[in-house]
Design a protein that fits this description.
Radius of gyration: 14 Å
Strand content: 5-15%
CATH architecture: Orthogonal Bundle
Number of strands: 4
CATH class: Mainly Alpha
Structural class: alpha+beta
CATH superfamily: lambda repressor-like DNA-binding domains
Largest sheet: 2 strands, antiparallel
CATH topology: 434 Repressor (Amino-terminal Domain)
Length: 113
Amino acid sequence: MVVNHKKYMVKSQSQVGNLRTLINSVSSTFMVTASQLRAARALLGWSRAELAKRSGVGAPTITDFELKGADARQGTVQKWVAALGKEGVEFTPETNDSGCGVRFKKGWPKEKR
């Protein structure tokens, strides 16, 4: 099965299943701010175009969210979190002691081979 979304293609059913698993693992109540998304991209050195390619969400949607304060659908945010999470980025929620943020998961960044 091939799924087309502009420049993003998923070529096999297993890849579709893996993406669904990642998306479903993100909490349904998880909030991501525009600043967090920009910071997450900066950790990886990704442009909006790169995040768009890896998440299957159009770059204009990312721009609208980050710069114009547009609301993003929950499914859209989950795709961003999943794509960034595959590269070791995790989002941290606001707590009583600290604000929200982003960081690398333990053991990341992995060395490129």
